[in-house]
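explain this.
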Amino acid sequence: MSRRDDRAVSGPADTRDVLSGLAPVVAPHTRLVVLGSFPSVASLQAQQYYAHPRNHFWPILSALWDVDLRALPYAERLEVVRARGLGIWDVYARCRREGSLDSAIEAAELNDLPALLQLAPGLQALAHNGGESARSMKLTQALGLAVYRLPSTSPANASWSFERKLAAWRAVFDRHGLI
């Protein structure tokens, strides 16, 4: 199924490559999965979630868990994430996009979000990281889990201060025993 048909690519003249996202970061005991929209250019190049240096994702987790995740190698960050009961994935599996802005996403294809229930049988909730991800809330709500819309950690979301984002994220993480 394709989303974002309102911005669909116009015919075969489009020579942009289809971009593919990253694999889910989950474990059987994952209680909460944060769903972004689609990895940024920096994340795709690094093959790491939230790789842009100004993205607040890793600093927020660091503040919530009182550990400097950015000082750890990426693989160790993911170990901490899994051990704490958090999962990371994106709503879209593939798309076309110039740059990193969500508003530039075209011809997006959804990830198999129902598969999360098999990958993480302990899953309690999904949290959409920002507005573009939250466009899929009707689909995620159909999974029968608690669903939240969190303020985007993207540097493009400058209208929310770090402290305000942190408070919103803290409330959801606390509700599901992640802090």
Remarks:
- The first strand starts at residue 2 and ends at 3.
